[in-house]
Amino acid sequence: MIKFINDILMFNWLNKLITLLVENVFHVSTSTRLGSSIHFFFYDTIKIIILLGIMIFLISYVRSYFPPERTKKILSRFDGVVGNIMASLLGTVTPFCSCSSVPIFIGFIEAGVPLGLTFSFLITSPIVNEAAFAILLASFGWKLAFTYVITGIVVGVVGGIVIGKLKMEDQVEGYVYEMQVNDLEIEKLTHKERVNFALENVKDIILRIWIFLLIGIALGALIHGWAPAEVLSKYAGPSNPFAVLVAVVVGIPLYSNALGTIPIAEALIAKGVGIGTALSFMMATTALSLPEMLLLRKVIKPKLIKMFVIITGIGIILVGYLFNSIAHLLV
């Protein structure tokens, strides 16, 4: 059973196949920098596409039971901490990047869902998703993958609770509360329609994110083959107390989704960068990107955006230090 997991689910078969490809077709040894980079690029590309196709299909089928209208109704039934937990959990089965989840977040505000709950959703949605979990599982094992998901949800729950306690409803643009939101009838789909919905989602999402994915994998391949391990380990290793802070500050101005940053994080970790440092960079890039802030500015005022960045940033930094301190238990 363990051999089956290692060979199939952990993609050992693919690793061997790509090794044969690089050494027999490209005639480059995988022990060289060039060969190592080529191997990383092809291996991660194929692995991630396979996982994407499977996981997007499965979760999209489940998502067909939770259209935005139903999600709004579910959230409206809860308040307090339970509501924040539900919002974060629903955020884990929503689109892969902040620019996809922000419009849903806006719809929640328009529908009167409490502000703290909407932010729990917004924080968790881009950080945690099923494909990111699957890739982390294949790359680092179940301990790190599950811990990442749990901490991502916790950041969303705590962040939403804090924002809810601050009573900043006046920082939402007034026109949002004046909008009339009609209850739409929830469409009932057949099994065939749900399968078609899931297949269309696979096609749509891969077409939308493939460029970010390939860029992330290419950067990861360069880091994997050419970045000096001793330098990265010295300045960005878990022993450097400032590494996590720098990773978050560097990650915020960038724009990507979790899928595009995971290959970079994977390569950085292999070179000696602290697990928490690499994952905090990934979280900051996906949850606090500049395009997301520009979208949010359409419905909320700068003061609330600033609080959102501060609260979420602090949460991500703490998660980074946590992962660095328990890394030996996760891999």
From TrEMBL:
The keyword Transmembrane helix applies. The chain crosses the membrane at residues 40-61, 81-109, 115-138, 145-163, 205-227, 239-256, 268-296, 308-330. It is a multi-pass membrane protein. Keywords: Cell membrane, Membrane, Transmembrane, Transmembrane helix. The keyword Transferase does not apply. GO terms for cellular component: plasma membrane. InterPro entries: DUF318 (IPR005524), UPF0718_permease (IPR053166). This is Permease.
